[in-house]
Amino acid sequence: MADYLADLFAKYDIETQQVEYDEGRSNLIADMGKTKVKKSVVSGHLDIVEAGDEYEWKFRPFSGEITGDKRYDRGTSDMKSGLFALVIIMCELKEEGADLNSSARIFDAVGKEIGRIGSKRMVKQGYIDGIDG
Questions:
Q1: Which of the chain's termini has less CB crowding within 10 Å, N or C?
Q2: Cα-based distances in Å from 128 to 31, 63, 90, 104, 116
Q3: Are 84 and 9 in contact (CB under 8 A)?
Q4: pLDDT in the model for residue 113
Q5: Alpha-carbon distance 68 to 51, whole Å?
């Protein structure tokens, strides 16, 4: 997910940084705006809880099956819709050349479901130092 978002942000010339948490799992930071003034951050998470034995599910957990007007998929109603809304807003602002009077940062971490491990490490490493809101 972090790779996909980094590639998407690159198309809009939005600066990103991936901070590896573990092999194959990275936190992602995306920044835009004036970096020397007030800084705002919004946060989301990139991963989902493991599905366990997928054969015990009524619908396969990663199938994205649609039945009637409902979609069945692991993480369908999780943070991903909120996360992508934030991503789209940032890309739209950049594309329109919005003159922000602050900087905006999207902070997407791994491990939210398991003790907020990604966020805790990012805080400890100083990635939210100087955030105003």
A1: C
A2: 12, 36, 18, 12, 15
A3: no
A4: 64
A5: 23
